[in-house]
Known about the structure:
The complex is a heterodimer. Chain A is an alpha+beta fold. In chain A, 25% of the residues lie in helices and 24% in strands.
Amino acid sequence: MTTTEAPLARVRAVGTGHVRVEGRDKVTGAARYAGEIPFAELAHGWLVLSTVARGRIRDVEADAVLAMPGVLAVLDHRNAPPLKTDYIGLLGTAPDPTCAVFQNDHVPHLGWPVALVVAETSEQAREAAEALVVHYEQAPHDVGFTGDHPDAHPSDGHMPAVTDKGDLEAELAASAVVVDATYTTPEEHHHPMEPHAATARWEADRLEVVDSNQGATWVVAELANLFSLDPASVRVRSEHVGGGFGSKGVRAHQVAAVMASRMIGRPVRVVLTRRQMFTLAGHRSPTIQRVRLGADTDGRLRALDHRSLSRTSTVHEFVEPSAGVARVMYDADAHHTENRVVPLDVPSPTWMRAPGEAPGSFALEAALDELAHRCGIDPIELRLRNEPDRGPVSGLPFAGRNLRACFEEGARRFGWDRRDPRPGVRREGRWLLGTGTAAASFGAGAAPSTASITAEADGRFTVRIAAADIGTGARTALTLVAADALDVPPDRVQVRLGDSAFGFAMIAGGSMGTRSWSWAVMAAAGELRDRLVPGAAIPAEGITVRSDTTAAIGALAQKERHSFGAQFAEVAVDTATGEVRVRHMLGVFAAGRIVNPLTARGQFTGGMIWGISMALHEEAARDAAFGGPVGADLAGYHVATHADVSRVEAHWVADDDPDDPVGIKGIGEIGIVGAAAAVANAVWHATGVRHRSLPIRPDRVLTGGRDA
Amino acid sequence: MREFGYRKASDVAGAVALLDSDPDARYLAGGTNLVDLMKTGVERPGRLVDVRGLPLDRVEPTPAGGLRIGATVTNSDLAAHPLVRTRYPVLAQAVLAGASGQLRNMATVGGNLLQRTRCAYFADTTGACNKRAPGSGCPAVRGENRNHAVLGASAHCVAVHPSDMAVALAALDGMVHYETAQGPGELPLGWLYLPVADTPHRETALPPGALITGVTLPPAPVATRSRYRKVRERASYAFAVGSVGAALDVRDGVVREVRLAFGAVASRPWRARAAERILTGAPADTESFAAAADAELAAARPLSHNGFKVTLMRNLTVAVLSELAEEAAR
Lengths: 708, 330
């Protein structure tokens, strides 16, 4: 037993670089991930996915594989328990039926889960799953994503489908300069290093799931709903997560594992393969976006029209709201944005890093670049001339909009003032050189969370919060926030997270995790410090306080709350071979208080590198004839390699959010926003050819922007 | 995954005897391709005979002034060998253009020659593929064929051979040596790969059960000025969209000797003999290089999405030969 110390003046932890508190465990292999945590009596499930793109299951020849070595059970729509799916989940939507497995004989896309084979070993389960014969009654499918598809319709998703003000056609007609262009982005996938994995175990009527997810209490709520359980009887743990990017909510593997575990009375583990992730983990829909900008000769926008079409499955409506970014970025006398979606016989898309903003900023920021050229105005100056005072659509004041500071700092660091605006005039050997820029924004929000902090008898503090560190460094960030709030060095704080038993907390998503959790930690720490009497002894069981930020966050004033950024890119293009190399990426962000500069830089540069990938590499192909993915592995689906990433710099400007206890806005997603546009704009500056379809592949460069 | 037997061979004769021409058995060398294919179910061998430890890991000069390269020499060791780097730079460059450092440390010369196509339809066991399941059809002909063949393909298969190393070996007139239970044999690299025709599942002319023991390169003074250029959809760790291996000897502005081979355009490394014939004795200038490329590519039959490869190969050929000619003139 010790006594609490009187506060001493010390260096604040927040704002100084700290290595990850669990870094050593991760690099030495001591950190265990969901698929490798040992369980006694563990059985292994392997998912069987449909091989047809549409139809019905006629028969499953389960008996044949039940006779194979080690096979314990085959679960399909004939013997699976019914699930409840008519509820609205945490994120405001009904569950994606893809995760409510084996409820009927309907096959809505290729790669749909039709059965789970359970066996003693993973190898036996896989062998039996691959041997399982499933008979289908095949129906014609439609996977053709076109701009004029008759089933396309406006869709709200997590924002209104349409916003509209002013007389668009009149303002376009009155504009001295009009840009009217169509941009496309392909189907893109988020494949965390750690594939989705879950182990389910029932103890009487209590369910425990060890999982890899972005929010333990979120998964509890979904499983409790699906299986009609009391949430208090479900516990989900997810201590270490090897990446999520939006893909790690409730998915087919957890639900199948829970079903199978109940069926055989043993713990069951289900792990997805890379190939299965291509249809079961969600993805970013392809988009077709038309942007029309009308401006006076001085570049002031009279008309802004951004219409986006995305694609969803026939079982779940998810909209990639690419037109939403225009509602924040630029005002115009006439302003129209519209998100539409078309259901096709494809897997359900989902949230993928910067949903909406990532593809939307490509189209809008490329169109701005086209307008700048047409008006003969510097692309940065054009954006600054169109800086709005209030939300262009909402009319609400901005809670900080430091885009100008980002551009000024970025231009200074990048040497933008030396730029010759003419395209296609710089050559270095076989390479044409060019530079480009783009603006970025992403919503800055906070959601209610709970946390507890225990003052331990040995003078240390334990923070418990159902946060998720999906590789972002959240555990370390919360350690720093708690240390400052408690006025102790970080090494006296232990943060425990990833356990639903710690109470409700926001997911790692929407760039809202660290802010939401920090708020709860700050609230608990404040109350704990009030409870601790300097010099008084702490009992053996410690002193624990709990916080709940629901009321505080509910009291936040309505404002336009966003992070902003300016992206810069320098590229080299060989038009004889079609090769594009990004020589330099520079981003400057106004994204609230930066808690841990070390991991924050990784978040920003990680997003920017993803932007390089989006601009040049990423594209999931789908075969029109059989309706499935082509090259569904990380050899076929290209992401940027080290050799594609040379100099990448991230910087930030002071931007503390006055409405947040720590000043945080959130940095998870803004790094990718605008990055692809900056690269594409630089490719135009290098070559004089505008590439409006991503990725900018060698064949597209060779054929001058027309598809091969 | 199918259970399989595993035996490690200690000498060449023992390896051949262990495999015993069993169609259900495979030699395992670096495993960088075979093990992947076993995981995805494309290959389901009942037995593996591990040959990686065989004493075939030397690169040695031949009395004639060429090189004898053992079949289990790793890609990394091959690319780093001083004689390869000085006598056959095109080979070192080709090897280093392939895969990643980790894979090159495992992958062997023999395995590299016998690696399978990376056609995505071949890799997807749930669909059709004449190479994997003879007679089932070729979805690539009308499907996603951007990276498929423009030369020497057939209606039955349009897959390309993925090796970079083999392109250089084709340009260098490599001779492939193998061992069978009936004794040793050899095949020019140009004959190792069979025409596609209607039998894309039959990929090489090696007799059943044959084990590649090495490759011999004849002396090739022309190769001291040689180059490999590979275009791919990212800067590293991707198979070629198109590649060129070339060697050029220019005297007084005239091409005395040239070697030219294309990668990623056919089911085998494509020796551009028509182009070589036109170039030999021609002026070493852009016009000749372009005319030679056009002559070679006149036989190209592009598919729905890969017409750009004809342009790419023409441009690459001109660029690489021009570079070599400029070097020669310096």
